[in-house]
Amino acid sequence: MTSTIKHPLIVATYTLKTPIEYGGQLVTELNFRTPRAKDHIIVERAKVGIVESTVKYLQLLTEQVPFVIENLSQEDYTGAIDAMNALGSNDSFLK
After folding, report:
1. How far is Cα 1 from Cα 8, in angstroms, rounded to an integer?
2. Which of 7, 43, 66, 67 is most buried, most CB within 10 Å of its CB?
3. Contact at 8 Å (CB) between 28 and 16?
4. Is position 90 within any domain?
5. How many domains does the chain have?
6. What Rg do the C-alpha atoms of the chain give, in angstroms?
7. What integer is the mean pLDDT of 20-29?
8. Is 22 within 8 Å of 59 (Cβ atoms)?
């Protein structure tokens, strides 16, 4: 299953090495939308640590439910972070 994206502009796709079953469907990809300033504001206001901030960014930019992001394998978690950081200009999201 490809994630449902509310925004028409998908700027990156990460294919999961270990798909996740959610809601009776298999999630095989994470589709990333264009980051917005609002995403940074939401994460900053949450006042959480680096791991929770990373998970929140992944949820926001892929528009996935928490269950999917929280259950990524270590390999997919790292790959998704790399895909997300590639969306930034010269720096990663998590500075």
Report:
1. 17
2. 43
3. yes
4. no
5. 1
6. 13
7. 96
8. no
Output the six-digit token pair for 51. 């791991």
Beta strands in 1-95 (DSSP E): 10-22, 25-33
Tokens 């269950």 sit at which residue?
A: 67
Q: Look up the pTM and report it.
A: 0.80
Note the residue count of the chain: 95
**What are 88's two structure tokens?**
């930034």
> Residue 30: helix, strand or coil by DSSP?
strand
The token pair at 42 is 């939401």
The pLDDT value recorded for residue 90 is 40
> Is residue 4 a part of any domain in this protein?
no
The CA distance from 53 to 85, in Å, is 13
Residue 91: DSSP 8-state: S
Cα 32 to Cα 11, 22, 24, 58, distances in angstroms: 6, 18, 22, 8
Domain span at residue 64 reads 10-85
In terms of phi and psi (left: phi > 0; alpha: psi -120 to 50; beta: otherwise), the region of 28 is alpha
